[in-house]
Design brief:
mainly alpha, about 80 residues, 3-stranded antiparallel beta sheet
Length: about 80
Amino acid sequence: MKKKGGTQFLGFMVKEEKEENRGSVEFQVFSFTKKIRRLASHLELHKKYFSSERGLRILLGKRRRLLAYLAKKNRERV
């Protein structure tokens, strides 16, 4: 997906926003998703690399908790 002015990801992350809001929850979810995709493709090639698998599980947990926090926070805003 392309959007004028930068790359769009998940409908809420535009490149300019990403550079400005590195501490935001949305950016952290974006960053974890990129890392998860990279580790998943790495594990497809190296199936017995268990330390990468452990790192992937840790990232999945962190992203899941951030998404739960974001969902809770958005409900409170409305």
